[in-house]
Design a protein that fits this description.
It contains twelve helices and 13 strands. The chain is of the alpha/beta class. Bound molecules: adenosine-5'-diphosphate and magnesium ion.
């Protein structure tokens, strides 16, 4: 039988856009020693704005760089893609049609635009391809830069910025006050991850982590004796959510529904995550 205090608590929680799929995990909220947050869309607003367009080849103009990128990104669900499409709209650029669109998980997108092979990718992807970062496009804290490749050569790049959610400060502080360490796990570059982690006074971060490496990072913390809860926003995060002692999927959408999370939160507000953990603790403390 479900103890009364739990049934009261879970029905109360359903009203808050919270679905608890694994009650044991929820009971274990009181054991959590480290909470690993995903960055984009949870600690930050996840709305990227293009702050600069750089041309790295004499063969192209700013408009062409934006046009190539936006034509592909129109097919992407990623917040970076949405920011690039927005920039094209602001510049009065109409995206062209794209063929063979493909998302390169955790790295970018690729496809064919106007008969050219186009890629919009992370600095990590350039490194893999042995392409040097062009002058003026070096990593900088708070800036997420993506590179536009045309037929495998760097034509230009776009600098984007996301903003920290005001609720993140309180969420991190509230957890730390109760002895829970706060970490960040992101696919974004180290300079930006570091800037966000430092700004929020977090206990640590993992950056430039590909979707299939996220699980390993959770294991690393567990090997150090941490009891880990993790937030994630999609199917890509499923193995890591399953690895964590408490997996919390955030956001709406089909990805979340299909994920392996123990707990699903409709809102990605970090204060809701904090409240959930503290609520779990309070609920089960009442029973002892
Ligand atoms: P996060 O862990 O913050 O959610 P992702 O794994 O979604 O990050 O993305 C990691 C990196 O991959 C981004 O910072 C970006 O450099 C690159 N990337 C992902 N999707 C796209 C896209 N649609 N266009 C350009 N770059 C992308
Ligand atoms: Mg993500």
């Amino acid at each position: 039988a479900i103890p009364l205090v739990v049934s009261v608590s879970t029905s109360k929680s359903a009203q808050n856009g919270l679905l608890i799929r694994n009650r044991t995990a929820f009971e274990n909220a009181r054991r959590i020693s480290t909470l690993v947050f995903d960055k984009t869309g949870t600690l930050t607003n996840g709305t990227f704005e293009v702050t600069a367009v750089n041309v790295h080849s004499d063969s192209y103009t700013e408009e062409q760089i934006v046009s190539f990128a936006a034509s592909l990104e129109g097919h992407s669900e990623h917040p970076i893609g949405k920011g690039i499409v927005q920039k094209a709209t602001t510049m009065g650029i109409k995206p062209e049609s794209a063929d063979n669109f493909e998302a390169i998980k955790g790295k970018g997108v690729s496809g064919i635009v106007s008969g050219k092979q186009i890629e919009v990718v992370s600095p990590g992807y350039l490194k893999e391809q042995n392409l040097a970062i062009p002058e003026g496009a070096e990593a900088k804290g708070g800036v997420t830069r993506v590179f536009v490749l045309v037929d495998n050569t760097i034509a230009g790049s776009l600098a984007l910025s996301d903003t920290i959610r005001p609720e993140s400060y309180k969420a991190v502080q509230a957890l730390q006050k109760r002895g829970i360490k706060c970490w960040m796990l992101t696919g974004d570059n180290t300079a930006t991850a570091k800037a966000v982690a430092e700004e929020l006074g977090m206990d640590g971060f993992f950056a430039e982590v590909l979707p299939d490496q996220k699980q390993e990072k959770i294991k690393e913390l567990q090997k150090k004796g941490e009891y880990v809860a993790m937030t994630g926003d999609g199917v890509n995060d499923s193995p890591a959510l399953a690895q964590a002692q408490v997996g919390i999927a955030v956001g709406s959408g089909t990805d979340v529904a299909a994920s392996t999370a123990d707990i699903i939160l409709v809102n990605s507000n970090p204060l809701d995550i904090t409240a959930l953990i503290l609520f779990g603790r309070a609920t089960y403390q009442k029973m002892v």
